[in-house]
Design goal:
Blueprint lengths: L3 E2 L2 E3 L5 H10 L4 H12 L14 H10 E2 L4 E7 L5 E7 L5 E9 L2 E5 L3 E3 L14 E4 L2 H15 L5 E4 L9 H11 L12 E5 L3 H8 L6 E5 L5 H7 L8 H15 L3 E7 L7 H11 L4 E7 L13 H13 L4 E3 L13 H9 L15
Parallel strand pairs: 2-3, 7-10, 10-11, 11-12, 12-13, 13-14, 14-15
Antiparallel strand pairs: 1-2, 4-5, 5-6, 6-7, 8-9
The protein binds S-adenosyl-L-homocysteine.
């Protein structure tokens, strides 16, 4: 049921218009919804009791019928190497998600999860190991940004949807999240400061292009031909590289937003001279950016990252070929840096079974 958590309605997942309808249905004046929306999405309140400009009786009624879907911080890790922090949050049903705060000169960026677990099965990714538990609600996605802004006491200006999960596999909630977090009635974070990363779910890339949003789309490439990509990313068997690339072109043509391609460099697997040639063929005719991510070793997987020099050589050769390329700066490697590793560690400790992949669409 839309917007419901257990028996109470999840008030934080209603957008501005929906909240107005709810409040009017309760027999209250529409301006009350403006006040509540501001408490929830600007003042980031996590209980009704503190909404002091609402009549006490009305607050009581809200408490009875609605829930502010709280995500609760379980662990906060602060890197000693760079201004990065990692957060583990517990959801009301016991699932756990992680989010990262990265401070840059241009502002504070939060990396959020879009699902608890993931069913895409990418070989090198820690988030894929336990399979998908469930989609996150809109309020749970917003809650990651809100909680971190409150805990850090600093304004968040940028968001990357690159934590656990595939945003385009939780399409409606993801798009609503983008609209609400960039809403002038809420945190008002510019859509141009939001990047979402996808493994290439072709039909939903098409839908996203038509939404009229201004976010950046990052495409996880990882292999420069169909066969190699499918070996690392099982989802590529369903959505072929040529179709995914055509969809990237369509996204760029429709939104004017340049695509970022992500390429996790795996030693001996996709860091060879052939890969440089094929990557160049794909990227040189496109107005795009390539982000190389030396693969973060995950303890359950055997993949290794190339050493610094080989990664630099790979980058330099691509640059010589006219590709706009960077190596992603490693952040917080002392704090369970790789995607999903903090959550994995807890899943292990709390006895969650590995390999619960019945919902995987991509397992072979
Ligand atoms: N489902 C989305 C978001 C995934 S996380 C997607 O597939 O794009 C963001 C990026 O980190 C993706 O490119 C993902 O493939 C990459 N990634 C995941 N685990 C990694 C690891 N251990 N080392 C390097 N990159 C990794």
């Amino acid at each position: 049921m839309k917007g419901r958590i257990m028996d109470k309605k999840d008030i934080g997942s209603f957008n501005y218009e929906e909240l107005k309808e709810e409040i009017v249905k309760m027999g209250e004046k529409p301006f009350r919804s403006r006040q509540i929306y501001e408490w929830l999405h600007v003042k980031l309140a996590d209980d009704f009791g503190g909404m002091t400009n609402l009549p006490k009786q009305f607050r009581e009624r809200l408490k009875e019928e609605y829930e502010i879907a709280g995500i609760k911080m379980i662990e906060r890790q602060i890197s000693k190497e760079d201004p990065t922090e990692k957060f583990l949050f517990g959801l009301t049903d016991g699932n756990m998600i992680e989010s990262v705060l990265m401070r840059y000169t241009y502002g504070n960026s939060v990396c959020i999860s879009s699902q608890a677990g993931c069913r895409m099965g990418c070989r090198f990714c820690a988030s894929a190991i336990g399979g998908l538990k469930r989609n996150l609600t809109v309020s749970e996605m917003l809650g990651q940004v809100y909680s971190i802004q409150k805990l850090a006491g600093e304004r968040i200006s940028n968001i990357v949807v690159m934590g656990t999960g595939e945003p385009l596999d939780n399409y409606d909630n993801f798009v609503k999240f983008v609209r609400m977090v960039s809403d002038e009635h809420g945190l008002n974070i510019s859509q141009r400061n939001i990047t979402a990363s996808t493994c290439g779910i072709v039909p939903n890339m098409r839908r996203l292009a038509e939404e009229g949003l201004q976010i950046t789309l990052a495409l996880s490439l990882h292999g420069a031909n169909q066969e190699k990509r499918a070996r690392l990313m099982p989802v590529a068997r369903q959505y072929e590289l040529t179709d995914v690339l055509a969809e990237c072109d369509h996204y760029f043509q429709t939104t004017g937003r340049r695509i970022t391609f992500e390429y996790s460099l795996v030693e001996g697997v996709n860091d060879q001279p052939d890969d440089i040639r094929e990557l160049t063929d794909i990227l040189k005719k496109r107005n795009c950016h390539l982000n190389l991510i030396p693969v973060n070793p995950v303890k359950e997987r055997e993949y290794r990252k190339p050493d610094r020099e080989s990664a630099l050589a790979f980058k330099n050769k691509l640059e010589k070929n006219g590709i706009n390329v960077t190596i992603r700066r490693e952040r917080g490697s002392d704090i369970d840096g790789a995607c999903g590793q903090l959550r994995r560690r807890y899943a292990g400790e709390t006895g969650c079974k590995q390999g619960e992949t019945d919902e995987d669409i991509c397992n072979d």
